[in-house]
């Protein structure tokens, strides 16, 4: 009896239709999920690149570069 149940679950029966093609909705969903995985992979790679070299994307100028005649620590005195 166990052999009959196992054979029934593994082998398709004769009265079932063999429609193995996906519907348009399933294809669209599958393509959208694949695009989401690609986007996730790009984000993961970008985050790891930032973690490995965080100062690569920062500009080399500082906030004091635009001030004429002031040192970096003198900004508070310039406002007074």
TrEMBL record:
<keyword id="KW-0472">Membrane</keyword>
<protein>
    <submittedName>
        <fullName>Cortexin 3</fullName>
    </submittedName>
</protein>
<dbReference type="GO" id="GO:0016020">
    <property type="term" value="C:membrane"/>
</dbReference>
<dbReference type="Pfam" id="PF11057">
    <property type="entry name" value="Cortexin"/>
</dbReference>
<keyword id="KW-1133">Transmembrane helix</keyword>
<feature type="transmembrane region" description="Helical">
    <location>
        <begin position="29"/>
        <end position="48"/>
    </location>
</feature>
<keyword id="KW-0812">Transmembrane</keyword>
<dbReference type="InterPro" id="IPR020066">
    <property type="entry name" value="Cortexin"/>
</dbReference>
């Amino acid at each position: 009896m166990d052999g009959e149940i196992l054979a029934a679950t593994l082998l398709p029966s004769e009265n079932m239709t063999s429609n193995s093609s996906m519907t348009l909705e399933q294809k669209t969903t599958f393509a959208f999920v694949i695009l989401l995985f690609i986007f996730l992979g790009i984000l993961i790679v970008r985050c790891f690149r930032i973690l490995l070299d965080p100062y690569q994307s920062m500009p080399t100028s500082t906030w004091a570069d635009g001030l004429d005649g002031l040192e970096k620590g003198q900004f508070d005195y310039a406002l007074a």
